[in-house]
Structures are given as C-alpha cells and as structure tokens.
Amino acid sequence: MSxxxxxxxxxxxxLTAVPAISFAQTTPxxxxxxxxxxxxxxxxxxxxxxxxxxxxxxxxxATVFQDSGSAKGWEALRTRALWGxxxxxxxxxxxxxLHVLSVTFFQWQGGIDTSKIPT
Length: 119
Description:
By secondary structure, the protein is mainly α. It has three helices and no strands.
C-alpha cells in the first residue's frame, strides 16, 4: 500500500470515527458502560474495515481482470479471488464473535431500543 493510499484510508477512518466519539453523551462510570462503549467503537470500526476490504476486493479483481487474457492472468485472478473470499470470511467471523461475546457477557442485543419509542 502506498503512502498516499494509506493516508487516504486513515483520513476516511478518522472522518468516520470522530463524530461518533465526539458526540458521546456520557463518560463511562462503571465497567459495563466502558465495555459497551468499546464494543460500539469496535463495531463501528469493523463496519469501516469490512467496507474498505470489500471495495479493495472488487478493485483488485477488476484490475486483475484487465490482464486476464493470458493463462498467467487467469491464475492471478483465481488466486486473488480465493484469498479475498477467505479474508472477507475472517472479517465477518470476527464481527460474529464480537456479537456473541457482547450478548453472552453484557446481554446487549443491538438493534433499536423499542422501549424509548413513543406510542
């Protein structure tokens, strides 16, 4: 990854993370609230990483697809596609493990809190 691309990715991550952290309503007062805040930050970071990985995967396949006229090009396409699918699977698995841990230890169900919706 070039330095310019790394700076762009870091800028996008920073732009995505700053509003969520700066508009936090309360500071954690106990371990459970600290853990929930960390889980929310990790969940947001996981979403950004998944999006960036998927976009990179599609971009990588598109660039290799241009050189697929030869047998060597098809082999490179097959290798990148396989590794891309494996990496995306690992990323989604980490997200699932984090969700299972948060539900197991903190009974956090995620989604919308319907108790605060006015009727």
